[in-house]
Write a structure and sequence with these properties.
This protein is mainly α. It is about 70% helix and about 0% strand. The N and C termini lie far apart (about 30 Å).
Length: about 100
């Protein structure tokens, strides 16, 4: 895979899996509540998520998708790290 890259079929399956997981998370009340809280902390709406999903669906190469997801995942990871600092405070983080 490192030498040949990702095949179109692998990319399609990965995109479908990620999009399905994202939709499934929104159908879980606890996860949805967590997403709402996170969006409030980073000053986002679910329109941001919809835009990200549209970009992932439309992009054709793994590098394009990785770039689209990197900021989204990095922000979520940093927010969770800050939430776990023990004092209960949450600081919004933006790049």
């Amino acid at each position: 895979m490192l030498e040949g890259g990702v095949t179109a079929e692998e990319l399609s399956k990965a995109k479908d899996g990620w999009l399905q997981e994202d939709a499934q998370e929104r159908s879980n009340d606890d996860e949805l509540a967590s997403q709402i809280a996170t969006h409030r902390e980073v000053n986002r709406t679910f329109g941001y998520d919809a835009d990200l999903e549209r970009r992932v669906q439309s992009e054709r190469r793994a590098q394009e998708i990785a770039g689209s997801l990197e900021f989204h995942q990095g922000t979520r990871r940093r927010l969770r790290q800050r939430q776990g600092q023990g004092d209960g405070s949450v600081t919004a983080c933006r790049n």
